[in-house]
Amino acid sequence: MMDRYTLLQKIGIYFGIAVFLTFILLPFFEMFMTSLKPLNHILRAPYQFWSDDFSFDAYTRMWERVPLLGRYIWNSIFIATTVTIIAMIVIVPAAYAYARLDFPFKTQSLGLFLSVNMFAGAVLLIPLYKLMRTLGLLNTYWAMIIPGVAFLIPTGIWLLRGYLEKIPKEMEEAAYMDGASRLYTLRRVILPLAGPGLVVVATTVFITAYAQQYLFAVTFNSNGNLHPLPVGLLQFIGYQNVEWNMMMAAALTGITPVLLVFLFLQRYLVAGLTAGAVKE
Amino acid sequence: MATLDLTSITKDFGAHKVLSGIDLAIRDREFVVFVGPSGCGKSTLLRIIAGLEAATSGRILIDGQDVSDAAPVDRGISMVFQSYALYPHLSIFENIAFPLRVARLPEAEVKAKVARAAEILQLTEKLSLKPGQLSGGQRQRVAIGRSIVRNPKVFLFDEPLSNLDAALRGEMRVELSALQRDLDATMVYVTHDQVEAMTMAHRIVVLNKGRIEQFGTPMELYHHPATRFVATFIGQPNMNLIPATVTGTGAEGVTVAFHGGAQMTLPVDPGTTRAGDRVEVGLRPENLTLGQGLAMRLRVLERLGGTAIAYGMMGDGLKLCAALPGDTAVHEGEEVGLTFAPADAHVFDAQGRVLRRRQAPALAA
Ligand SMILES: Nc1ncnc2c1ncn2[C@@H]1O[C@H](COP(=O)(O)OP(=O)(O)OP(=O)(O)O)[C@@H](O)[C@H]1O
Ligand SMILES: [Mg+2]
Q1: Is the minimum distance from the CB of B13 to ligand 1 under 6 angstroms?
Q2: Strands (E), chain A
Q3: Which of A74, A254, A274, B246 is the most exposed place for a label (fewest CB within 10 A)?
Q4: Which distant-in-sequence residues (6+ apart) come within 8 Å of B18 by Cβ?
């Protein structure tokens, strides 16, 4: 590949990336720093970035302070994973239908789905609460999973449809000529080719599911055993003081497993996000 | 082993009539090529035969059986697409085996059939590779391999060579002709390249604006084009068309006067033409020779070796092209005289229909 940038341009580009990354990563870094400091150092005025007393103390003490912390982390991952799985089971065939089939009210129905996303989840909390109560799902995992899935389906369809549309139609026609059914073609041709797209969509769904569970958990669940991490973190807020260092340590511990999975998927993510950007 | 009959096929896309009244009888083991300008409906007709597109009306019969409503596999048809449509994530073996996998054949049979197809197409060494690792010509062969493994009765090709470079295209042309003989198959082939049509076809269908202009052997189309459209479409360089007026008809043929005033009697059936009718005289560049007759100002001379293609203009601004012997001593900018044998002339009436030639070469069967 040709070196297309001059040194000056490169410096500019790297500088831009550095600014951007700083902006995104600084909160994480600050979280980490906070988790290492003793509580009285955190609340020191004036604010002191560096502490002379760093320790991983909070990482061990947090488990005692909030005994169910492990359970909360597990709940978070469990809810987000289940939401992702169920959502994908619905999204894949729906996105395929929107990408390839012709049916009445195709564009209108997709628009309608998407308009649901225009409402913030909060607006719909009360009707959803009533619905959950009627179905007898309050205080169960389902109370957090079902609304999570429902809110993610429209975006998921929208995103995945774009990927599926990029797969040449002739490949499907060739399979059809050879006698393959739609489902067989979907399984053996379309989905393998849409791999990167699937990873991107599943990732987006997972992240959003992870982020949105707080609202549903606070509203639809009062069973302490089922709470996800964001709700669990509230327990670090005591009557006298807030255990900031432990809260940050717990938050970081909670997202670490997810982070590891994403590092592993990164290769697909990059391929997926740029797929179709250049003519092959 | 199959005949293919189309009866009054029409196709509309909304208000847009793409095909109107296509009737075609293709014989067993025949290699038929559809040619025509872009947008004339070649691909649409092929896709209707394949079963990828439903005809608005009309029937399709394979071996006498009405398959108009059958799925492609049940028609016993396979198709090779212009873009190859290979599956990039599957190996060459699995690409070729795809139709057999769909049919759930036992593994041993799949292996044997793929091996045979790979051998015919010289792909045996490539079976474990992915399509991305093959050259254009090899990919094309994989696409053909996928279409031959399940022994269809009719093969369809939609411009299969148009993505290849000229040299490879020539090679594949020969291979495809040989394949057609070896497989004893009925083939329908779409192209807009008339060299492919002339060299490979047993018979050619010339399509224009969704209608069949003519269906015949390459030499029939060359010597006896039914219409002005076919005459200019078949043959390279294109046929010259010179406007003329009929001055008389008789047993000898039709006497025409060119705009320069020169008169000539051409041995064609007058049909309904009368003195005074405007006609066009069609002259193939290869039928023109140096001599007294049409005067042309030579503008460009392309020496190809064996022949020299002379492009020029007649006095009234009409373009003219002649294929002369390679070492003809003429120069660009010069005035040259061109002549032709009356028997070589084609005459088209005002509607573009040909007046039948009397002395043209006998038709090759
Ligand atoms: N799905 C479709 N919807 C509407 N119009 C179509 C559709 N498919 C083809 N057409 C129209 O039908 C006409 C014939 O198309 P077709 O693809 O058969 O042409 P073609 O002869 O194969 O041309 P080319 O040589 O460019 O491939 C064109 O005018 C095209 O715009
Ligand atoms: Mg076409």
Answers
A1: yes
A2: none
A3: A274
A4: B11, B12, B41, B44, B210
- Please report which helix (H) or strand (E) contains residue B249, including its range: strand B240-250
pLDDT digits (tens, 9 = 90+) for A237-262: 877 788 888 888 888 988 888 888 88
Q: Kindly state whether residue A17 falls inside one of the protein's structural domains.
A: yes
Percent pLDDT > 70 in chain A is: 94
Asked if A173 lies within 8 A of B81 by C-beta distance, the reply is yes
Strand partners, B307: B325
B38 CA to centre of ligand 2 in angstroms:
7
Q: Which domains does chain B have, with CATH numbers?
A: 4-232 (3.40.50.300), 237-355 (2.40.50.100)
Whole-prediction pTM value?
Answer: 0.81
Structure-block tokens of residue B274: 């009368």
> Is the residue at A193 inside a domain?
yes
Domains identified in chain A, total number: 1
Q: Is residue A1 part of a domain?
A: no
Q: Which residues contact A276 (CB under 8 A, 6 or more apart)?
A: A163, A166
Q: The CATH number of the domain where A73 resides is what?
A: 1.10.3720.10
Helix (H, G, I), strand (E, B) or coil at B240: strand
Between residues A181 and A40, the one the model is more confident about: A181
- pLDDT tens-digit profile of A182-193? 899 999 999 888
Domain that holds residue A56: 7-276
Contact B73 A179 (CB under 8 A): yes
Please report whether residue A2 resides in a domain: no
Q: How many CB pairs under 8 A join A and B?
A: 53
The full DSSP string for B284-304 is -GGG-EEEEEEEEEEEEEEE-
CA distances from A35 to A239, A243, B232 (A): 20, 10, 84
Inter-chain CB proximity A192 and B98 less than 8 Å = no
Counting ligand 1 atoms within 8 A of each CB, the residue from B19, B20, B44, B56 with the most, and so the one to mutate, is B44
Residues in chain B, pLDDT under 70 = 1, 360, 362-365
